Amino acid sequence: MRIDVVSIFPEYLEPLNVSLVGKARARGQLDVRVHDLRQWTHDRHHTVDDTPYGGGPGMVMKPDPWGEALDAIIADGEGTPELIVPTPSGVPFTQRLAVELSAAPWLIFTPARYEGIDRRVIEEYGARLPVREVSIGDYVLAGGEAPVLVMTEAIARLLPGVLGNAASHQDDSFAPGTMAALLEGPVYTKPPSWRGHEVPDVLVSGHHGKIARWRRDEALRRTVAHRPDLIAGAEPGAFDKRDRATLADEGWWPRPDGRFEPGSPGVEE
């Protein structure tokens, strides 16, 4: 996979040289190219922003540098890239979207600063190639570089051969492919006893069926505690008999339509 990032702060992207992403780059599994937007400016101050039409606070990133940058990058590659625009007003970045983007051969990220990029840039390239406006959460940052780091790591770890164990991401929190997305449960390693805290007996029992059930139950409990919306939004029939018993222990019961909610017991069909 090739990833291009255009930024006025290319040094912000230095973490892409370390850890999992850095190793994937060194092995040739991931081709990451970081570009300084200011190299496509033509005035002595390397200006990339101006005041907004219609008034209002802040500055808007000018379309000319972005157009020249994107044209040059696209011309330097083969095929059609997908343009990823980090913005608080975009669609939520989820594990499912990370999986989808990990199948793309080429992504271009456009992290903006100030009040964002002149809308005409999005319209121009939206007519020529796939464009996604993506948000990593309901908050506002100083710029889009941090979201690029988040999304790149989430995507890169899904590429074949990047993780040492190819099955490592299959049990991730929010992993797609099931009717109910659950958070991952707690994990433990050696020693078996630490400061008076013991590893749960089931994990050292060697009974794979019981271990799998324990992990499923703990995932359900953690999801109820931290992301109850995922339980409430799960499809009817997403939970087996043991799941339903665990949810009942946590105070969740099926409604007549089969979905679960906290409260008093209902009547199952």
Summarize the structure.
By secondary structure, the protein is of the alpha/beta class.
3D structure, described in words:
The protein has 269 residues and is of the alpha/beta class. The chain has 2 domains: 2-157, 3-Layer(aba) Sandwich (Alpha/beta knot), CATH 3.40.1280.10; 193-262, no CATH class. 30% of the residues lie in helices and 17% in strands. It has helices at 19-26, 63-75, 95-102, 119-126, 145-156, 208-226, 228-232, 241-249, and strands at 2-7, 31-36, 49-50, 60-61, 82-92, 106-109, 131-135, 193-194, 197-198, 252-254, 260-262. The strands form 4 sheets. The chain has a 5-stranded parallel beta sheet. A two-stranded antiparallel ribbon has the order 3-4. α3 (95-102) crosses α5 and α6 crosses α8 (241-249). The protein is elongated, with a radius of gyration of 23 Å. Residues 232-269 are annotated as: Disordered. GO terms for molecular function: tRNA (guanine(37)-N1)-methyltransferase activity. Belongs to the RNA methyltransferase TrmD family. Homodimer.
Would you spell out the secondary-structure blueprint of this structure?
Layout: E1 2-7, H1 19-26, E2 31-36, E3 49-50, E4 60-61, H2 63-75, E5 82-92, H3 95-102, E6 106-109, H4 119-126, E7 131-135, H5 145-156, E8 193-194, E9 197-198, H6 208-226, H7 228-232, H8 241-249, E10 252-254, E11 260-262
Biggest sheet details: 5 strands, parallel
In the CATH hierarchy, what is the class of the largest domain? Alpha Beta
The CATH superfamily title of the largest domain: SPOUT methyltransferase, trefoil knot domain
What is the spatial order of strands in the main beta sheet? 2-1-6-5-7
Q: What is the alpha-carbon Rg in Å?
A: 23 Å
Q: What series of H and E elements makes up the topology?
A: EHEEEHEHEHEHEEHHHEE
Question: What is the CATH topology descriptor of the largest domain?
Answer: Alpha/beta knot
Low-confidence regions: none
Enzyme class: transferase
Catalytic activity: guanosine(37) in tRNA + S-adenosyl-L-methionine = N(1)-methylguanosine(37) in tRNA + S-adenosyl-L-homocysteine + H(+)
Protein name: tRNA (guanine-N(1)-)-methyltransferase
EC number: 2.1.1.228
